[in-house]
Amino acid sequence: MGRQREFDVEQALDAALCVFWRKGYEGASYTDLTQATGVERPGLYSAFGNKEALFRRAMERYFTHYLDYFPAALELPTSREVVEHIFHHAAELHTRHPDRPGCLGIHGALAGSDDAEPVRQALVDARAKGEVMLCDRFERAKQEGDLPPSANSAVLAAYVMTVLHGMAVQAKAGFSRDMLEAITEHALSTWPGNVSPSTGNPF
Amino acid sequence: MGRQREFDVEQALDAALCVFWRKGYEGASYTDLTQATGVERPGLYSAFGNKEALFRRAMERYFTHYLDYFPAALELPTSREVVEHIFHHAAELHTRHPDRPGCLGIHGALAGSDDAEPVRQALVDARAKGEVMLCDRFERAKQEGDLPPSANSAVLAAYVMTVLHGMAVQAKAGFSRDMLEAITEHALSTWPGNVSPSTGNPF
DNA sequence: TCTTTTTCATACCGATCGATACTAAATTGC
DNA sequence: GCAATTTAGTATCGATCGGTATGAAAAAGA
After folding, report:
1. pLDDT tens per residue across span A116-154
2. Would you state the pLDDT for residue B193?
């Protein structure tokens, strides 16, 4: 019983997500959030709790609705295809929305006041989780002979994630999708045990 | 004439730099800055102007006092040595001070409120400047036969900067210096026209 | 010594921060 | 229709934000 909600929770969450994507956790004020969602302050509080809870909900939605290409990539047959797929879709996502370039997982909370520390750590953990998934996938590739036994899965996974994070920074600085794609092509040009047919690398 | 300053401006600036390094432009409050510098609020204002001016001074000091390895690297004879030098010193700098891991050029202002936009743009410009310097250096390398004519200097420079930015993010997440060095080693393993003697790459 | 000038330090400014009391409106069960 | 319950919206909370007015303290020139 009682009065029914006049706004769609998922829709408001997506609007809040976009604000966090653009301004980060601390850079996004409730004034921004109410304007973007069209929901008054108490409405957001009753629906999501406090600001941190709202951000965590936005994080979850970001992973499931925007980073879904990541787990999908892990299913591809070779490690090179996995990384290619991730790089390609990351470059696309980072430039898909001109009003919020880059990646919420990076810009959400990289550095900030002590109040933002739990949120920052949550993003660190989430990124580490993705890196572990990549590492495990490379381990499997080694067992399958896709990667040489000398390959260090942990380092390769860290390398791929590092390039991804750097791409997010560059996208936020205004890099074009084509430039990001060119960067990923070079980043992949020396993938262990493979030769890029397009460039003719390596020497 | 008049009363003389009781604090050293450069010393206070360095303390403020460290706060910005750790918390970013907006995450650093004047309470943080006064505690770190030991200088009361009006002292900071009279010495530096407002918060944005203080940050820009801190930026300049960061470039000259911490990123001095970057212009020095450009003087090295080969492009590979240039990038090796930069990667190596970046990994070291990003983990040198455990209380402020990463890079001020990235964490200073990646995303934030509209108030921080000028500062964010200043960092974007500064990073772009470094990228241009790298690109010019690679162009020279092509003329010298150090890099093949097919090499795309702009892409190579963007790639190196992207790895650097990603390293800063990873360092802020707690990565060890050894891990960062391993990442740079892989990032370099495919440098055009060269073979890494230590790893025996490429295939 | 006295005046002038600059710095130091307390106390405070309006604005904005995240978060809430409170009242009116709307919906359900009885 | 009435009571119970939930939401919407206004108005506001204390705390903190960046930034200053103000007067005491200290140094230099006359």
Report:
1. 999 999 999 999 999 999 999 999 999 999 999 999 999
2. 65
Looking at domain A9-57, its CATH superfamily turns out to be Homeodomain-like (1.10.10.60)
Alpha helices in B97-192 (DSSP H): 104-107, 117-143, 153-172, 177-188
Residues 6+ apart with CB under 8 A from B147: B79, B138, B141, B153, B156, B192, B193
Residue of B51, B155, B186, B196 best to disrupt the A interface, most CBs of A under 10 A:
B186
Q: Which CATH number fits domain A66-188: 1.10.357.10, 3.90.550.10, 3.90.1150.10, 3.50.50.60?
A: 1.10.357.10
Q: What is the mean pLDDT of residues B124-150?
A: 97
Instruction: Note whether B166 contacts A: Cβ–Cβ < 8 A.
Output: yes
Does the pTM surpass 0.85? The reply is yes
Give the CATH number of domain B9-55; options: 1.20.1050.10, 1.10.10.60, 3.40.50.2000, 3.40.1190.10. Answer: 1.10.10.60
Tell me, what's the pLDDT at A199? Answer: 40
How do the domains of chain A map onto residue ranges?
9-57, 66-188
- Amino acid found at A197: P
